[in-house]
Amino acid sequence: MRIASFNLQNLRPRGGSRLDGARDSDTGETADPALDRMDRKLTAQVIGDMKADVLALQEVFDRATLDHFHDNFLLPAGVRAYPWRHCSHGNDGRGLDIALLSRIAPLEVTGHAGLRAADIDLRGDPEKPVFRRDCLRVEFAGVTLFLCHFKAPYPDPASAWAARRLEARAVRRLVERRFTDPASATWLIAGDLNEPWEPDGNPASAPLLAPFAVDLMARIKEQDRWSFYDRWSDRYAMPDAFLASPALARAFPRAMPEIHREGLERAARRHAGVHLPSVGRNRPHASDHAGVVVEFAGL
Length: 299
Known about the structure:
299 residues; alpha+beta; Deoxyribonuclease I, Chain A; six-stranded mixed sheet; 19% helix
């Protein structure tokens, strides 16, 4: 089973059959229908390159947008169909939610957008949902996925850190409630955990790290361990994560994540590899995130 995660950077409809390109609405970029379409063609190409059986997506507006992208961009790009698709409403005020594309029928998909801290015996604001978007639990025959997109580290870094720490504790609690012995079960946390630019000694995601889970991204050489580029600050980060249960990591000691940077803008100078032919210095590009994928052969 090949499992991927990809933040699509604002995949939202923009009237008729148009989709927004891979651009953020708060940067002042002018909408350009031609560039927007080229962006989304590149997004589809990266997804095709990853050849994932199961794909966790972040920043998808709704199920109709997901279906439109699948039928009008993925299929024309020659990507094999994903018959099982899911995107339910979360808590992102801009309507950017967590989505799932799968070629394997999930046994169950459960969202937790309405979860409050008290529901899982955690301390937190009783009036606010724990997750800024959602946490999707997706059950397959051999593995359970927890798909996440944590709070971004702005505008106030301290409060954003606290929000992400609560999200991390909540995901851990969901894993612990799902399995009597989490260490011996097979599960994977995947998604954009939004850890900030420079790693420090107290990451917000610490409740999910060793010994609770194994960070599969740590198997990549440190200098190559980045999946996000921000042109406005010219900085790189590794917010995209695969955190495996100890049993899953032990069963697949050679499962090495791949980072697909071919759709990133050429201004990301740290990427010395191949770009897709139509990628520009800034745009068109597939996203400000790379796609990440890991294979568990035989799962």
